[in-house]
Amino acid sequence: MKTSPRRLLAIGVVAATAVALVACSAGGGDSTGDGGPEAVTFWGSWSGDQVAQLEAQADAFNESQDEYEVTYVAQELVEEKLLTGLASGDVPDIVLWDRYNTPIYVPKNALAPLDEYIEADAVDLGQFYDQALSELVIDGVTYGIPLLVDNRSLFFNTAALDEAGVEPPTTWDELKSVAEATTVRDGGTLTRAGFQLNDPGLFNMWLAQAGGQMYSNDEQTTAFNSPEGLEVLDFWQSLLDAGVYELGFGEGVDAFAEGNVALKLDGPWALSSLDTAGTEFGIVQPPAGPNGDKGAGMGGFGLIIPQGAKNADGAWEFIKWWTTQPENGVAFGQISGWIPANIEAANDPYFTDNPRYAAFIETLEYAKVRSRIPGASDVEGKALIPQLERFLSGEINAEEALAEAQSLGDQILADNR
Amino acid sequence: MSATVAALPALPASPAKKAAQRRRIIGSGFWYIAVILVSISTVLPLVWTLSTSFKTQSEALSGALTLIPLDPTLENYVALFADGTFARYLVNSFIIAIGGTITNVFFGSLAGYALAKLRFPGRGSVFATFLASMMVPAIVTMIPTFLVLRYFPLAGGNDLFGQGGVGMINSYAAVLVPFAAGAFAVFFMKQFFESLPDEIGDAARIDGAGEFRIFLNIYFPLSAAGAAVLAVLTFQAGWNSFLWPLIALNNPDMYTVQVGLAAFINEYQTAYGPLMAGTIIASLPVLLVFIVAQKYIVQNFTGSAVK
Amino acid sequence: MTTLTRLNEVVRGPEMAKQQPPKWWRFGPDGGAVSATRRQQAVSGWIFLAVPVLLFVLFVLIPVGIAIVVSFTDYAVIGDFEWVGLANYTRLFQDPIFWIALRNTAYYTALFVPLGVVVALGTALLLNRRSGAVRVFRTLFYIPVISSTVATASIWFWLLNPQYGLFNVVLGWFGISGPAWLYDSQWAMIAIVMMSVWAGFGANMLIFLAALQGVPSELVEAARLEGASSWGVFWHVTLPAISRTMFLVVTLLLIAAFQVFDQAYVLTKGGPGNSTLTLVYYIYDRGFGRLEMGYASALSFILFLIILVFSLINARITNRRDFS
């Protein structure tokens, strides 16, 4: 009688531990179909409406063959999630990868080299825009295949410009005057912004337009704290002073699609939601700077296979299907508005005959990818952009912003050498 | 009280009394204004969220401060549950919150009882250590706890040395086990048991009852009120927890409702309607539990703090 | 005579109680039936404590130890790692982002703690009266506490939208053009403070309410009779009487303030302009964003020390006080 409650207790403790252990195996299991197509897990940071676009593309692949089945999973901050996935042993098979991040994650052994696959299937890497490809090659090893290219060009709301009787701008001065002409205020409140100056991350393209450069030629220090850099910020300030934009205007919604923004710099991904909204718009190249220099940034995505992916073969098949068969790249462009990185696909009549893509394709001629100097993305992300955000909030002035960004940026470059 | 004054026969109210009365009424008036203003500030955001969750996208963005939607719609809720992931998040959260509640109430009561009622060497230092552990900021232990779970021997494919597999990461165990019997639960129940008389247990002991018997049949039922409050608090804490599930759970299938909800915010284009709908759904269980148990919680807070 | 000896007499009768206790009862301090039950209690005690103690060792003690050790390495979970001695700590002090994070956290604390105390105490004073209505309002005031930080954040994300949010629309009625809140590097942290105070004051209000019950009413009346104004009564009678609780609340708020994370992560991801990059956010970013776990552990320890200092200061101040 004395022992049985105690035995009960001991049993209870054992039972509870058993439950915990069972829960651990029940929660983490993943399914691999036996007999059916092999699962290929596809991660990316695209969310919201874009999820459907990727799912449609995955479905097209799944229907085209029976061996593999690709499923897309949206992951916020997918690069960081990949690292935690590596730490916890749960990596996807293929990732929609922002090419710009490659130099950070390759040293962490996050990406699997693809050279063996490329050689085995005799893939000609020349079929891709070489700027795009270069972002994925570190020390001669290829870590991904370029998938999509983009740049930011100037969108304009046709109705707004017609209303004001102005033509789409081609230079900074014209940009300012068009923005002023198309800004609408109701009493004191801004109801239509002439130009949506909400992305300080585009500073590098403005800097190129001003004739400046981000880094010194020897790649040892930053070079954006220069007369050209100040010219950019002074221009931004003049736009703010002219009242064509207010901080926070149109955030969290698609203000351009709603007709509340007359001009904005954006990429091909915006096309599909504009079509849904039925807005009348046009696209021209980004404006040229005061000295006539043109500048644009090329960005975009690639497809990579993480280290330790369970189904690397399936992932590679999907990569080949999407990137080396031009018709599939074009198909995705039709769904999403994105331009494929495969040159042949990008020059398909669907794009070249379409007035909306004309400006993008023209800009692609001179668009440059961002620097691959070690630490460059931290320089932009931790040093430059925060200071520019403070500048746009009115917290600090242009000189202070660039000076702080420079000192922090130089330190980051030094730490990364 | 003014009623008593009015009931006094004959004597007319003196000017001083009248003035005092007026002051009281004005004071009362100001008091009501103040508490109503505060109440509006605490309740209005939630009401507005509820209202927005039933509005169409265009009405929500129209800038109108309508609390009753002009054109109420369930489309936000439908969109939320359309692909089944949000439902999955709810299930995960329930499992974790309820599991945590059961383990904490049971083990916390057991341990709290031991510290309160049983005499044995070392109980003082055990209690002191538990108390001290409550002061360690969570972030200090999070990274190493992640590593402990990752390299736990014989779990999730690990060998005896904890290598090779994934340990307990990315499973319900990762969220349940570390917090299954927290120091707070032990501390809380100890306080309750201490207020119960020793004699009953001693008498039962004389009669030859075993310790677990004494706990289960005598003291635990007596602590039902305390256990209930602990259950409610633990459920709320489990349901609302965010940082640890964010760290320990990587597979979207395992996400809790808080982690899932956080992912809706800060998108390039936030769909406010479904976000508000998701917020309401994510808040419903704790709200319901609170309404049912609020008397006990609020009482308990004021009660124990007085000591 | 202990209860047990008395019970012994009652149960077994005075005659039998005087007899020598049976052999299986050893001698205790009063010769009563002690030791066997003592052993039984000791064993049961440790069994009952087994699970919490085990979990404590596994998930508090060992992790703290690991944290200390890892902070002296460059551990990154994947790949090789090595002992780096104090390198993480020296890097920390030279890391401008660390100082930004520290400054942001201090700024948050400096705003959050006083505001939190004032609002909690103010509402407690408001509700410190006998009235049926008080219970209703007490519940209403407490409601924000039960929402999760994420739910609160999403509600405030909507409230603070620069164009459609409640705040700026109402400000617009008064002709004020509200700031861009979460998109403005000068207002983002303030927005987060407001949100945190709103979400948390209910709990501290209850603590203050309980303390206010303990203010001696004779003193209040005496002060009133001497002609003290309401403010005078508050300052000279009430406040000193609740000083111990005041320090308790201040410490709780301080400890919470230094660990602010959820709001910064969910709403602003540390921006804009790094203005909401708090210490815990930075630790999370380094540890789980870049897998620099060694560095992140070093950062956690510095945070721990900061919190410890404040807790010790508080403990000394409260201990110095004379309380009955």
Amino- and carboxy-terminal Cα gap of chain C: 30 Å
**Architecture (CATH level 2) name of the largest domain in chain C:** Orthogonal Bundle
First CA to last CA of chain B: what distance?
Answer: 33 Å
Give the oligomeric state of the chains in this entry, treating copies of one chain as homo and distinct chains as hetero: heterotrimer
**What is the CATH architecture annotation of the largest domain in chain B?**
Orthogonal Bundle
CATH superfamily annotation of the largest domain in chain B? MetI-like
What's the CATH topology name of the largest domain in chain B? Answer: MetI-like fold
Query: How many domain modules of chain B?
Result: 2
Number of helices of chain B: 15
Structural class of chain C: mainly alpha
Class per helix and strand makeup of chain B: mainly alpha
Percentage of residues assigned to helices of chain C = over 70%
Give the number of helices of chain C: 14
Averaged pLDDT of chain B, please? 82
Unreliable runs of chain B = 1-6
- Largest protein interface, residues of each chain: B-C, 100 and 97 residues
Global shape of chain C: flat
**Nearest-angstrom radius of gyration of chain C?**
28 Å
β-strand percent of chain C reads: under 5%
Percent of residues in helices of chain B = over 70%
Gross geometry of chain B: flat
What does it look like?
The complex is a heterotrimer of chains A (417), B (307) and C (324). Chain A is α/β, with parallel strands linked by helices and 417 residues long. Chain A folds into two domains: 185 residues, Periplasmic binding protein-like II (D-Maltodextrin-Binding Protein, domain 2), CATH 3.40.190; 191 residues, Periplasmic binding protein-like II (D-Maltodextrin-Binding Protein, domain 2, 3-Layer(aba) Sandwich). Chain A is built from 18 helices and 14 strands. In chain A, the strands form three sheets. In chain A, strands 1, 2, 3, 6, 12, 13 and 14 form a seven-stranded mixed sheet that branches. In chain A, strand 4 and strand 5 form a beta hairpin. In chain A, helix 9 crosses helix 10 and helix 12 packs across helix 13. About 4% of the residues of chain A have low confidence. Chain B is flat and about 70 Å long. Chain B has two domains: 60 residues; 228 residues, Orthogonal Bundle (MetI-like fold). With 307 residues, chain B is an all-alpha fold. In chain B, helix 6 packs across helix 9 and helix 14 crosses helix 15. Chain B is built from 15 helices and no strands. In chain C, 45% of the residues are buried. Chain C is an all-alpha fold. The radius of gyration of chain C is 28 Å and the shape is flat. Chain C is built from 14 helices and no strands. The longest helix of chain C has 36 residues. Chain C folds into two domains: 56 residues, no CATH class; 229 residues, Orthogonal Bundle (MetI-like fold), CATH 1.10.3720.10.
